[in-house]
Specification:
Helix 7 crosses helix 8, helix 13 crosses helix 14 and helix 14 packs parallel to helix 15. The longest helix is centred in the N-terminal third of the chain and has 21 residues. The radius of gyration is 23 Å and the shape is globular. Strands 1, 2, 3, 4, 5, 6, 13, 14, 15, 16, 17 and 18 form a twelve-stranded mixed β-sheet that branches. The protein has a four-stranded mixed β-sheet with strand order 19-21-22-20. A two-stranded parallel ribbon has the order 7-10. With 556 residues, the protein is of the alpha/beta class.
Length: 556
């Protein structure tokens, strides 16, 4: 059996100009990066504003497990399948972070015969967007310390610097550090730290911005520190936002690539969904909606994290309205949620499956009743799945009004997901009751409580007096209309990653709150979640290499 990278390296890719032409994009509007990838001109995108939108389809999943679900693979496979049945479909994905690529999660280009290519480029440096985001972020960090060193006219309280440096790699040693050691020439020593690029506010801003003007405005609104009187100091006060915009201007143009079956795919931006909002850029999604009749996009992790933020943050901010949702699962993963060890998942086990189905039932309920959207469940079929297991799942979910469809796109490409595509087309033609989990005017504390109780199945939320005081101050300072971005484990509806299935009645503790004024949301950090991950004992980097012919090997 060929590995993902071996399949991708055997692909016969078309020139990116041909892929663009299929969408009606003229040659002058593309900026090629080699032969098989390109950026689309922002000036050209502006000319599309008055065109009608296609149908937006969200791909999400059950709570992720070590058994794997295949959400990105399904997103790619569904896009190919829609084109296979004669529709005009475009795919929108996030760019992979090098942290997971060299760590343990792997890449984000799909798998098997449902991949976007060139896979190595996409999973590594791609078009340099992440490097631009890191540089813009770190320019602001350098400007802060430089300003303090040269007299601190704005009055930064060095104990209340609210801006960290970033890098796109897992490095636990940089979570908490001391900077400016070595004497007066090196500035004023203070505690600092690094976040991973995909957890940064600049990344979130980059993915929510709708134009260069909007990007610059948002960057200027970043609160990077406070005075001793606790008055906020903005990036605009440092006169830094213009230079940050200059670094990001070219990166803001969406990236166009293709699938193995030559379906067009925009891959742009990459915020984490267990920390940030977990969606590709608004610009890429809006552009795709103008160019295709159907746009397939994904939101990170499960329907409780990525999908909730997709709806309450991205759709709310950008005025997007999805038409249908595809919920991805595997029989293996559901048995894992039923309490079975990973080593035993290939064995038939109806009892474990029935127990684990509670996880997908809650996700379906959230999609249909809390988000008001129609839902089809796409099962990534494996040869070990028994007819009895599939029937049990279909019978259980029929009571929730969600059809279960088996998909074989990993092995068969677009034609393997044709049944899912036909079901999606049917759902897109039906009216829906799309809604947010909470309204904009609801207080921040109540927004967090709504997410916890309605989406996570919690009984309540808690926070210590310090955190509650911070939330109250944010509310009183004019940020109460912002949406809430919850940072918590992706592995459970609770804040305990070991609680599988669908735990209920738990209490969600908010241990930290952060203002993201440029991104225009409030981050509520719950449980033990890191904004700078660490590498595992045996990182994926140990298997990645370049052979004597200059070909990359071991990349999944």
């Amino acid at each position: 059996m060929l590995s993902d990278i071996e399949i991708a390296q055997k692909a016969k890719m078309k020139p990116i100009g041909e892929i663009a032409a299929r969408l009606g994009i003229p040659e002058h509007a593309i900026e090629p990066f080699g032969r098989t990838k390109a950026k689309i001109s922002l000036d050209y995108i502006e000319t599309l504003r008055k065109k009608p939108d296609g149908k937006l389809i969200l791909v999400t999943a059950i709570s992720p497990t070590p058994a794997g679900e295949g959400k990105t693979t399904t997103t790619v496979g569904l896009g190919d399948a829609l084109n296979h049945i004669g529709k005009k479909a475009v795919i929108c994905l996030r760019e992979p972070s090098l942290g997971p690529v060299f760590g343990m999660k792997g890449g984000a280009a799909g798998g098997g015969y449902a991949q976007v290519v060139p896979m190595e480029d996409i999973n590594l440096h791609f078009t340099g967007d992440f490097n631009a985001i890191a540089l813009a972020n770190n320019l602001l960090a350098a400007m802060i310390d430089n300003h303090i060193n040269h007299g601190n006219e704005l009055g930064f309280d060095v104990r209340r610097i609210a801006w960290k440096r970033v890098m796109d790699m897992n490095d636990r040693a940089l979570r908490q550090i001391t900077v400016a050691l070595g004497g007066p020439a090196n500035g004023f020593p203070r505690e600092d730290g690094f976040d991973i690029v995909v957890a940064s506010e600049v990344m979130a801003i980059f993915c929510l911005a709708t134009s260069v003007k909007d990007l610059k405005e948002r960057l200027g609104n970043i609160v990077c520190g406070y005075t001793k009187d606790q008055k906020p100091i903005l990036a605009r006060d440092l006169k830094c936002h213009g230079a940050m915009t200059a670094l990001l201007k070219d990166a803001l143009a969406p990236n166009l690539v293709q699938t193995l079956e030559h379906s067009p795919a925009f891959i742009h931006g990459g915020p984490f969904a267990n920390i940030a909002h977990g969606c590709n850029s608004v610009l890429a999604t809006q552009t795709a909606l103008k160019l295709g009749d159907y746009v397939v996009t994904e939101a990170g992790f499960g329907a409780d994290l990525g999908a909730e933020k997709f709806i309450d943050i991205k759709c709310r901010k950008a005025g997007l309205r999805p038409s249908a949702v595809v919920l991805v699962a595997t029989i293996r993963a559901l048995k894992y949620h039923g309490g079975i060890d990973v080593k035993e998942l290939s064995k038939p086990n109806l009892a474990a499956l029935e127990k684990g189905i509670t996880n997908i039932e809650r996700h379906v309920n959230n999609i249909r009743n809390n988000y008001g959207l129609p839902c089809v469940v796409s099962i990534n079929h494996r040869t070990e799945d028994t007819d009895e297991e599939v029937k049990l799942l279909m019978d259980k979910l029929a009571h929730h009004g969600a059809k279960v469809v088996l998909a074989r796109h990993w092995a068969d490409g677009g034609k393997g997901a044709a049944d899912v595509a036909r079901e999606v087309v049917k759902m897109c033609e039906q009216p829906n009751d799309f809604k947010f989990v909470y309204e904009e005017q609801v207080p921040l504390w109540d927004k967090m409580k709504a997410i916890a109780t309605r989406i996570y199945g919690a009984s309540d939320i808690t926070a210590d007096s310090k955190v509650r005081g911070q939330i109250k101050k944010l509310q009183e300072s004019g940020y109460g209309h912002y949406p809430v971005c919850v940072a918590k484990t992706q592995y459970s509806f609770s804040t305990d990653p070991q609680l599988r299935g669908a735990p209920s009645g738990h209490v969600v503790n908010v241990r930290e709150v952060r203002l993201a004024a440029g991104a225009e949301f409030i981050v509520m950090i719950c449980g033990d979640i890191m904004t700078m991950p660490g590498l595992p004992k045996v990182p994926s980097a140990c298997a990645i290499d370049v052979n004597d012919d200059g070909k990359i090997v071991g990349l999944f």
